[in-house]
Here is the input.
Amino acid sequence: MRIILFSGKGGVGKTTVASATGCRLAKEGYKTIVVSLDPAHSLADAFDLNHKEKYEAKGLPVKVSSNLHIQEIDIQEEIDRYWGDVYRFLELLFNTTGLDEMISEELAILPGMEEITSLLYVNKYYREGEYDVLILDLPPTGESLRFVSMPTVLKWYMKKVFKTEKMIMKVARPVVGRLTDVPLPDESYFKALENFYEKLKGVDEILIDPDTTSVRIVANPERMVIKESQRAYMYFNLFGVNVDAVIVNKVLPQEMDECRHLRKWLELQTEHIREIEAYFSPTPIFKVPLLEGEVYGLEALERLAELVYGNSNPYEVLHKEEPYSFIKENGAYTLRIKAPFARKENLSILKSEEEIVVRAGNFKSHILLPRKLRDMEPEKAVVKDGYIYITLIPLKG
Ligand SMILES: Nc1ncnc2c1ncn2[C@@H]1O[C@H](COP(=O)(O)OP(=O)(O)OP(=O)(O)O)[C@@H](O)[C@H]1O
Ligand SMILES: [Mg+2]
Here is the structure.
């Protein structure tokens, strides 16, 4: 199965390009579902569903053509329906000051229910195997970065706090029980919690498998958009999620040259496209013209897909490069992380028991060390040619 995530700044055309990609794949014979996680749902609008069709969908998949389904997930409803108890308990647990030392600074990025729900869906569709392709129309960049960081964060929690039910009993019960104002959750909470983790298990591996999951960043040739896309590109790389294409949408057609007012825009865009090519190379860049009107309905979406992909097959992994690797040289190891826009100044590297934690700005990635390297620590870091090189040496003492 292929999972293709569409990410980008607000309004750049994520929903439209994700939908167009779905149409094209369905036409090529792939059984495809386009899922939207955006609370400001516009997927149904992109496919021009009427009010009644939208109402009847109620968050479930809707068939829009022979191989194509769309689904707008209503997060609030999902939480109420499936995860209410667990969510309330997690909130309770994470807000309990007694757990401070255990969850330390990680509390700052408490798992968001939106992201977790999305991950549950990724796992569900992956396990069920009913579709050949799952397309996710992610919310604007900030939230999609939270989404990809979620499996790493959750893994951390799982390992440290909720590894097994026994562990939960051992760790959570006494701590929660000690605090008089916090009610002790009953057995059903733990069962629900276990069930919840069972449903999430393996999703992190799916997301970092470049043969399964690709991110396609949608951008416009505008300064602010490029900045945000660059940041997203770096973070996806840090989290080990393969970005296989950058789609530059709403490129003004050359004819605009006729109009003095638009000529300036055209020049600006040309300049920005040059920048985009420099920043994201060698990741393939697809340029898509601004069409004469808004894009909705199957026919218009199929036409847009032609303009996006031309002769390339959107099912394929369009570009693949290992986001991080361990290089062995003369008995010493270097961790090489692909991070095109990382700068030495805002980089921090920490070693925990078995992980290297790399931070760049507000985000961080936990890279689990192979067993062999767990007794090593970072000695120095070099940022060079779009990579971070971290030299690992045996622990002193
Ligand atoms: N190439 C294009 N030519 C003309 N109009 C376009 C093109 N791409 C997208 N649009 C239009 O731009 C608008 C915004 O697109 P879309 O809803 O896909 O953006 P989005 O990135 O999903 O936005 P949001 O962040 O709000 O979810 C829509 O009206 C869509 O029809
Ligand atoms: Mg959208």
Q: What stands out?
A: The pocket of magnesium ion (ligand 2) is lined by residues 14-15, 38, 42, 137 (CB under 6 Å). The chain has two domains: 1-314, 324-394. The CA atoms of residues 273 and 321 lie 23 Å apart.
